[in-house]
Amino acid sequence: MTNKKLVTVIGLLPVLMVLGNSMLIPILPSIEKGLHIDERWSGWILSSFTIPAAVCIPFIGFLSDRLGRDRLIKYSLWIILAGSSLCAVSVLLKNPAFLFMGGRGLQGVGAAGTAPLAIALAGDLFNGDERSEVLGTLEVFNGMGKVFAPIIGAGLTIFLSWNNAFWIFPLLCLVILLGLKKTLKPADEEKNSQGVREYARDLASVMKSKWLLLLPLYTIGGIGLFLLFGILFFLSYHIENTFHIDGFFKGFSFMFPLGAMTISSIWSGKRIKTDEERGWYYIKWGLGMMTVPLGILIIFHSLSSLLFCITVCFGGLGFILPVLNTFITGSVNEGERGFVVSMYGTARFLGVALGPIAFSSWMENEMGMYIVTFLFSVVNILLYMLTAHRGKVSIQKLSRG
Asked: Which of 39, 76, 107, 118 has a Cα-to-Cα distance from 48 of 20 to 30 A?
């Protein structure tokens, strides 16, 4: 892989996005107490970040096709820096919840220009097998962020109050801004010189010809992350309220499922390259690894069973996500890539946003929650069956575009 420094800097963008929610999961009860809100509203601590991101991603994707990925990424990083600072200082107010949620909203707007544009930028800068490898590496960064974010969040609160954890975001934003300045040259990416009407016509043509492929792939990714963040949200409260495990050890328990997802992402990303058939094979087995454990949880749902089953489940998700990145990025040319990939980012963010909200209401009836979770995984299998027998994107051909 060429230009490893550039790949590392781009890889920090999905890490920044992941920290926005995953770092907070083990410290949600502490934030809830600090903001003086109850459990019914705690899901909004996460969703006030992800809903604005999901709304803004398509617009930022469109603008990145017009103005350039680099410029939009830099604007996004400064917005995250501002929102994070508001979250950190919100505790100075008598009623901090409104300022905190406003800061989280700004973080979400900024996050819309991180991971989705990182995927699109990687698609622009790399071709062929190297593109697949870089996209797999981005998913590895994403997974590693998910593994270490809960530990970072829980570990920091041992020494600092919860609000000081938010100063990590400005620090990481400054590191990425400096890295982009040193590694991404102006000649590396070019702005789209098409007129708006011509761009819209080409984009409509792409979506019309490929929606039967793209829509199911978007949905599979969105449902996968909906289940991931929903179950992690449930696990955070289940461990603390039922087993009275808190702090660092609760953050450590998240390493098992998230670590499995990271390992399988590394394995999948390195091997898919431009082999389309292998990619569909990974999706099939990944969906199977998700569905079977979620079915088992309907019958056995002790803490050990829960940790084992979700570890296998998210190992399966790790097989799927790098393939989705490669298929979606390789299905369009550079001129439309920002918008098409951003729509995928919207689906992923909606999954992340809605998971905690849904599971916060479902977890009152654990049996019903496990049944619904299993049914969502079955929907993903049906979407795979619908998509896999159709025209399948020609990755080997389009990955050069």
From this structure: 118
Q: Which pair of tokens denotes residue 354?
A: 């809605």
Among the residue ranges 154-158, 245-249, 304-308, 336-340, the one predicted with the least confidence is 245-249
Q: Say how far apart CA 127 and CA 298 lie, in whole Å.
A: 44
| Percentage helix, strand, coil for the chain under 3-state DSSP, each rounded to 5 | 85, 0, 15
Give the whole-angstrom CA distance, residue 357 versus residue 51.
11
Confidence of residue 176 (pLDDT cuts 50, 70, 90): very high
The pTM for the full model equals 0.74
Q: Identify the band that residue 249 occupies on the pLDDT scale cut at 50, 70 and 90.
A: low
Structure confidence at residue 396 (pLDDT): 40
Let me know: does 148 contact 50? Beta carbons within 8 Å. no
Q: Which two tokens stand for residue 102?
A: 């406003």
- CATH of range 4-187+198-389; options 1.20.1250.20, 3.30.420.10, 3.10.150.10, 3.40.50.720: 1.20.1250.20
Distance CA 243, CA 272 (A): 41
Burial class (CB in 10 A: 0-12, 13-18, 19+), 302: exposed
Instruction: Please report, as a single letter, which amino acid is at residue 8.
Output: T
Does residue 142 sit in helix, strand or coil?
A: helix
Structure tokens at 223: 């449902």
CA dihedral 379, 230, 58, 268 (to 10 degrees): -70
Cα dihedral sign, 357-360-364-368: positive
Query: Per-residue pLDDT for 194 more than 60?
Result: no
